[in-house]
Amino acid sequence: MVANTESRSLTVKIKRYNPESDAPPRWEEFRVDADPMDRVLDVLQNVKWEQDETLGLRRSCAHGVCGSDAMRINGTNGLACKILVKNLKSDTITVEPILGLPVIKDLIVDMKPFFDHYKSVLPFLMNDDPAPTTERLQSPEQRARFDDSTKCILCACCTTACPPFWGDQNYVGPAAIVNAHRFIFDSRDHGAAERLDILNDTEGVWRCRTVFNCTSACPRDIKVTQTIQEVKRAMLTGSIDFEGAAE
């Protein structure tokens, strides 16, 4: 990390869990000097590289694209690589794993249940028409219809910020519904009815309680709650508007 005269001394509280020795998890504190433009990920890497190499965390691109470093930071879901030290309102950073998924070690959770829900909504183009000699064409309005839900990076921030998911991990969750929406409202796709049938279930869209935690947690600013409501409306009306959001 780059130090300057504006560096802050931070207390970093990390929820630790080693399945070989810890039951239950424990909290551990570290002191880190951080530059205002450092990110929480930089702070955690300082801990791992300079103080305790046993700290377990995920990271990859470090630019908010891969979504691998999702965690709870001061009680709110976010990507550690996107949150700047200067934007923290405290000199204490509390870091813990995202909720609702099994903890493997420290800040690393088992993402398999999350991706099982994602796969359950058939998140791929379904079209049995003969393949055209060029791409399948859409109008700009048709493409714009589902643009917001294409931004999902599968970080799980929205799903693990959802109170219904905390209480029932069988709930498919906001991220899966967002990715179903991406294809349900794609004019080239023919699988909308099948996806809507999958989501028309007690563990599907009707488990949503419109808390808006998912929208607040999304690092890509997807209108997650609106997306879920549009899927619900498509079920209730039996129609899909391919060229404009439902009013």
UniProtKB/TrEMBL annotation:
Source organism per UniProt: Singulisphaera acidiphila (strain ATCC BAA-1392 / DSM 18658 / VKM B-2454 / MOB10)
Protein name as it appears in the record: succinate dehydrogenase
Highest taxon of source: Bacteria
Alphabetical keyword list: 2Fe-2S, 3Fe-4S, 4Fe-4S, Iron, Iron-sulfur, Metal-binding, Oxidoreductase, Tricarboxylic acid cycle
Family per record: Belongs to the succinate dehydrogenase/fumarate reductase iron-sulfur protein family.
GO biological process, one term: respiratory electron transport chain
Membrane-spanning residues: none
PANTHER family, per database record: SUCCINATE DEHYDROGENASE [UBIQUINONE] IRON-SULFUR SUBUNIT, MITOCHONDRIAL, SUCCINATE DEHYDROGENASE IRON-SULFUR PROTEIN
One Pfam family linked to the record: Fer4_8
Organism placement in taxonomy: Bacteria, Pseudomonadati, Planctomycetota, Planctomycetia, Isosphaerales
Presence of keyword Nucleus: no
Co-factor requirement: [3Fe-4S] cluster; [4Fe-4S] cluster; [2Fe-2S] cluster
GO MF annotation terms: 2 iron, 2 sulfur cluster binding; 3 iron, 4 sulfur cluster binding; 4 iron, 4 sulfur cluster binding; electron transfer activity; metal ion binding; succinate dehydrogenase (quinone) activity
Broad EC category: oxidoreductase
